[in-house]
Amino acid sequence: MASIFSRLYDLLQAARGANSTFLTDQVVPGANLSGKWIIITGSNNGVGFEAAKSFASWGANLILACREPPAWELHPTAAVNECKDIAAAQGHSSTIEWWQIDMADLSSVETFCQRWLQSDRVLDILCNNAGIAESTRQTRITKDGFQLVHQVNFLSHVLLTLRLLPSLARSAEPRVICTTSCYHHLGVFDLDHFNGEPGMKGIDYQNNKLYFQMWVAELQSRFLKNPEYLHITINGVHPGFVASGIWDDLANAGKAPGGLGFLLRYVAITTQQGGLAITNAATSLEFGPDPKKQGVGVENGRGGGKYINRIWEGPARSYCNDPEARSRLWIKLDEELGLQEKGLLTGLGL
To answer: Which one of 87, 246, 301, 343 is CB 3.0 to 4.6 Å from 94, fit for a cystine?
Structure first.
């Protein structure tokens, strides 16, 4: 009986992600980001592009971290030009650039990080946003040997974040925003089939969103134990049920659920509204550092390790609050990515 109630609770929490409350400038007022450096992955379309446009209007220097896209997506060079126009219209002379990165190729992630670290810029905000809903019919396993959704949505962002920690640590109040999902409440914690092997329980998208949200909580707990990283705040955010291109992946793979078209037309929010979830998590005082624990921030700062449902803090799945489960996930990530060998767990522990 307890498991039935638990399942119903998880379904309810997942359903809360469909909250379509319209967000105005009064609710998400923006911030002065002049001189700040922001990297945002998957920022040439969808909620990532909308967030980039908001950041540009607020004066930020931006790196649009995107792959060379398929023909039907807006090209990153066009996205850069639009962001530059928005910044200029607001009187900003920001640096806004496209740096190529392919989250389905770990060597591409490494090359991107090396380029950033060699620039010697301080990274103020990292938005881990890129993602796909489903492996395509043509590509299920990446050149690195990982299931495509597992690598693009999760593993590559783990590598990216840990590589960029030295640059983040140099910022006064750095933030990492991870686009997780209300679907993390429906994920199955199945480390025996972590890479989507035959026999995996659950659905790869939902499972990896669960792992991502668990990792957010675990990484924040480790930041709090290290004076060098104490001031870094990382949160997971569900942007909402958004009518964006991510659903095209499901359609292309022949796995679009029945009634999706109806839901996208009458229930889903726009990409502009979804983008506000990312910008709010990146700039609001509420989701900034907790001064009592982190030594920086304002009095009402909630700190990190949270799950944010659009702009409201919500309960994360129970696994996210389970230190033992999070530790097992942390060790599994080391096994897959060789993080300790790469020197990426220094000061964080295994």
So the answer is: 87
Quote the tokens at residue 143. Answer: 């050149």
Beta bridge partners of 96: 62
Catalytic residue among 9, 183, 205, 211: 205
| Displacement of CA 138 from its chain's centroid (Å) | 25
Dihedral sign (CA 183, 2, 323, 285): positive
Tokens 């726009």 found at: 270
Encoding tokens for residue 289? Answer: 């550092």
Q: What is the CA radius of gyration of the chain?
A: 19
Q: pLDDT tens digit string along 275-288?
A: 999 999 999 999 99
Token pair recorded at residue 111:
């090359």
DSSP class of residue 270 equals P
Q: Verify whether residue 229 is a known catalytic residue.
A: no
CA–CA distance, 125 with 199 (Å, rounded to integer): 38
pLDDT tens sequence across 43-98: 999 999 999 999 999 999 999 999 999 998 999 999 999 999 999 999 999 999 99
pTM exceeding the 0.85 threshold for the entire prediction: yes
Torsion of Cα atoms, 334 then 337 then 341 then 346, to 10°: -60
> Which residues lie below 8 Å from residue 15, measured CB to CB, with a gap of 6+?
182
Distance of alpha carbon 75 from alpha carbon 78, whole angstroms? 5
Rounded CA separation 48/239 (Å)? 10
Distance of alpha carbon 247 from alpha carbon 262, whole angstroms? 13
Residue with tokens 């060079």: 77
Cβ neighbours around 297 below 10 Å, total: 20
Cα separation, 243 vs 27, whole angstroms? 21
